[in-house]
Each structure stands twice: as C-alpha cells, then as structure tokens.
Amino acid sequence: MHYFNELMGFIEGNVALSATFNIIMLVLAGMIAHFACKLFIVKVVRKVFFSAHKSDVPLDKDVRISEKLSNFIPVITVYYLLQFMPELPEHLQIAIKTLCGILFFVYLSLFFNEVLEIVNNSYSKKSKRKNHSIKGYIQVGKILVHILSAIMILAIMSNKSPVIIISSLGAAAAVLMLVFQHTLLSLVANIQVSSNDVLQLGDWIEMPDKNLSGEVTDIALHTITIRNWDNTISRIPTKNFLTETYTNWQAMFSSGARRIMRSFYLDLDSVTFVNQEMLQSMVQLRGVSEPLTALLDGRDISAVGDRWFIENGMTNLTVFRHYLTAWLGQRDDIRKDMYTVVRALKPSPDGLPVEIYCFTSSTLWADYENSQSEIFEYIYAVASLFSLRIYQHPSGADFWRLSRDRAQSVANSRTPSV
Question: Where would one find coiled-coil regions in this protein (predicted)?
C-alpha cells in the first residue's frame, strides 16, 4: 500500500510537470508568433494592401494594421498547438480554449475598428468632397463590431450558439431601445445631415439660441464640434440640428456674393421738392447727370422751373435714391448681375430709414466690411449735397450749442444800440 501511494504521487507529479511544461511551451509559441508578426507582417501588409504606395516612403496605416494583426495571430497559434497536447487535463484545455476564443474576438474587433478608422482618414484625404464627413457611419460600424464581438464572447463563455444569444436579446429589446435612445436619435440625425448635405465640414453656422457662430470642424455620431470665431470650442448634439433653428452661411460662400442690407436714417424735415438752387449743388457730383436726365425725360435742367418739380412729385430724396442706385452699379466691388435696390422704408421716431440692398463681389469678411463701410461713409458725406440731413438723436453737444446760441442772443438783445 505504501509503494502504491508513492507510485500515484510520482505519476501525479509527472502529470503536473508535463502540464506546466506544455503551458510554458504554449506561452513561448505565442510570444515567438507575436515577435515574428512584428518583424515580417509589416512587409506582407504593405505588399498585399498598399502595393501602389512608394516603397521608400513610410506608412502609418500598414504599421497600425500590423500591430493589430500581431495581437490575435499568437492566439490562433496557441489554439492550434493545443490540439497536439492531449495529455493536458480537460478542464485546463477548456479554460485555455475559452480564453483564446475571448481574446480572438477582442483583438478581431480592435482590428476592424482600426480598419474603419483608416477608411475614415483615407476618405477625408482622398475624397473629392473634402468637406463631407463619414465619421458618423464609421462610429456606427464600430458599435456594430463591438456588439457582434460581445455576442460571440457571451456564446463562448456560456458554450451556446450565438443564435440563441441573439434570440434571447429580443426580450430585452425594449430595454435596449431605452438605453440607446440617444444613440438611435443621433444616428438618424447624422444620416439626414450627411445624406442631405445640409451641414458639412468647414461650414459657417450660427445658432442664436445657443449664442454660437463659427466653423464646423467635426461631425461625429453624437456631437458636432464648432470652433467659434473667438477660438472657443462648442459641441452640440447632432439631433439638435433637426429640432432647432440655425443658419448655414455656406450657400452664400458658394454663390460668390454676400448681401448688404443696411439702412441709414434721414431727417423727415429735410425731404422736400427739388428746386433750381438744389440742382446747382447736385450737378457738381460726377454721375448725377444721367439719372437726373432720365427723371426729367430728357428736358434741359436749366429750362425746368420749380413748379414742374412740384407738379411731377420729384423730391430731393427721389434724385438721391436714383443717384445711389447708379453709383452702386458703377462700383467694382458690387455684383451687377444681382439685385441693387435703394428704397425708403416705413418712417419711425428715428427718422426715415433708407435701405441699401446689394451684393458684394467678395465673400471674405474683411473685404465685405470694407465695401460696406465705404458705401455708408460716402452716403453720410454726400447727403448734404442733396439738401438731406442724416438723422441722429440729440446729444450733449447739441444741447450745449443751443444753450450757447440762446445766451448769445440774449446778450445781443441787451447790448444798447449806438
């Protein structure tokens, strides 16, 4: 009996030693496969997938793919060599196979995620539509890859068919819909935004409710990133672009013209009928003769009396509007093929608003503001030649001038005449 116990102990010791040796061999085989992949798989990947690329130029994509391949190929090696080690205990074989299956699908999901990321980067660089983003679709693909990997891992751990796992998820569909409701809403919004081209990378958008105005720098599944003009970064949920009001200025840039729609105010008391005295100051301006001749139906200016202007309802504002229209049409920075309108609007307590409506030939902000400033600076200076006054609210200087004039008149009235 004593010798029998010693024999059993020796056999068990040999079995444990053999199992330990086999495990060490599996670990070494996995490490060798990993390092072999690190050394050789980069060349294989470049030759198979990136053969058109110049061989002397290093690629980032082939290195990234090779790193992901070198992760799960050792797992395949260990799983394959395990078939040649039947002396391992059954429970140990099951544990190693389960671990290999889990690692395989984990590394496989990481590999496909890397491929999807490379596809996204390549599309962004090589696509003819540089401002179009497929990042939302790539993120959806990543989510599906993770979900499928999770299902396969659950099937391996429970030793059941993946079909059974998927069918069992049907009962939890309502819970999944609740958990992923924001993801689903963002997915629908991202598809509509991307497919309809209502929003693209590089677009200038404004959201007054959010106090946002800037350039779209990233379109993801859940959020859209905006770099504001003050260089701050804002992220807005994608679904907000379907439910909230915003303005996209990209169509303006595409048209090659930017609208000026701005008013200046005239003193209503300065609007009056034209007379010969006014005409003397008007005709001093170059370019006023043509619109004035058109208004007079070809009549000689000196031969027209003041009564004619009253009977035909020609005011100094009428001449001024026609002159500004002709003057704007002669400017190189104003588009001739688009509307150019100078019109009087509804009077207000601030005076009579006169609106300038035209389009600049440059959409650049600096050029646009420069053209707009030049137009209104000229209007403010030239209005007096048409006997028109620009309206503004009385200031402290106006009241001081009135008080000074009144004091001067009182002083003059008290001065005895000689």
Answer: none
